[in-house]
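Please decode residue identities from the backbone states below.
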């Protein structure tokens, strides 16, 4: 498993069809409002996707998930993505997100199955509202039993 203390992790399916990047942040965003926490999470995901931890231009659009998708398209990275932040008493309790990159080996059938799976999941905010959300735990939910290896 790779990542900064398991707050950002990446896994790839053994057939190479999907790469999943998941990020969970908590203490680092406690002082932010939910929108700023979503922006920070999206920037982390984008940086991991394009291989640049610090030089990614910040996202500023009102709809953070849409802004992330547009930026991924600009980098020619076909993906499904979502970010969310849960408010707490002192700002944000937890923020997180995922990016599922569609790799060249992904078939239309596999993409359809992943899309259906994501559509049947609870909203991301609900998934983050667990006892102790973790990036590896989020990857396990997103992979839905698909064999994968940590990268």
């Amino acid at each position: 498993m790779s990542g900064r203390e398991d707050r950002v992790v990446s896994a790839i399916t053994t057939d190479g069809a999907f790469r999943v990047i998941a990020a969970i942040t908590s203490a680092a965003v406690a002082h932010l409002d939910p929108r700023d926490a979503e922006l920070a999470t999206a920037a982390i995901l984008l940086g991991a996707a394009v291989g640049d931890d610090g030089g990614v231009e910040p996202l500023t659009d009102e709809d953070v998930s849409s802004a992330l998708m547009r930026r991924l398209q600009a980098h020619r990275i076909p993906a499904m993505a979502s970010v969310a932040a849960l408010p707490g008493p002192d700002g944000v309790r937890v923020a997180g997100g995922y990016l599922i990159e569609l790799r060249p080996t992904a078939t239309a059938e596999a993409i359809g199955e992943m899309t259906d799976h994501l559509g049947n999941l609870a909203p991301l905010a609900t998934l983050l509202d667990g006892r102790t959300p973790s990036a590896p735990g989020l990857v396990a939910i997103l992979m839905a039993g698909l064999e994968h290896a940590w990268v």
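Observation: Helices lie at 34-50, 64-74, 108-120, 124-128, 135-143.
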